[in-house]
């Protein structure tokens, strides 16, 4: 995958991490690890702290890894700005992407490297430790720059949900349903973010030809690699569908593909889809 520009909205906090305490006890940390590894919102399981946060420096344009991330974020900015204008009649507000190592303070609480990338709706920022890409390649068998771009595009998909008011609606709905109902809402939210990532890839390639041979396959492999069923089988040896919070590998691939094929935001209504 290639990028056509660089974002000015990447903040580098690498080297600023340290031992931090998560509210809610070790149980919350374990749950948050799973949620954030799959790209979810950690504020559901970790202590929120609206006053928290720390500033970093702009990303070094001479750092190849930071430059790559900046390029992907730029492509999401260009695409979603146009999509909001042309398909939704709205203005797109760009998120900040924060690079960190070891641990980071967000307004949703503390994130740790082992938890993977996450999006915090309270500060509208995407957080990623670039070591996750090694995990994606070595542990989950999903190498390649397009796989890495999919991860960022998925998190930006959560930002789109926040801007459209979907995230706030889901918070209210979760308060009215039981655990299994909340899990189902979470799955639908995650699959919609996957679909939005596909919409982005479609439109970015249509406008700026960013995809290269093999990129679609890399992204689909990444989507399938982090399905709930595959992770549960790896970590606990059995699969419990009613405990899914992000969707099966097949579902994640299907919804990413749906957005990729359609290129339209309206095709991503996972909340009315039956079956998923």
Could you characterize what this model shows?
By secondary structure, this protein is α/β, with parallel strands linked by helices. It has one domain. It contains nine helices and seven strands. The protein has helices at 25-37, 64-88, 132-138, 145-163, 166-174, 179-208, 215-225, 228-236, 249-262; strands spanning 10-12, 57-58, 96-99, 103-106, 109-112, 118-120, 125-128. The strands form two sheets. It has a five-stranded mixed beta sheet, with helices on one face. Strand 4 and strand 5 (109-112) form a beta hairpin.
In short:
50% of the residues lie in helices and 9% in strands.
User: Largest sheet, described in full?
Assistant: 5 strands, mixed
What gyration radius follows from the Cα positions, in whole Å? 17 Å
**Secondary structure: number of strands:** 7
Low-confidence segments: 18-39, 43-53
How far apart, in Å, are the first and last alpha carbons?
29 Å
Overall domain count: 1
Give the H and E element order. EHEHEEEEEHHHHHHH
Number of helices: 9
Average pLDDT score: 88
- Roughly what fraction of the amino acids lie in strands? 5-15%
- Overall structural class, as computed from helix and strand content, comes to alpha/beta
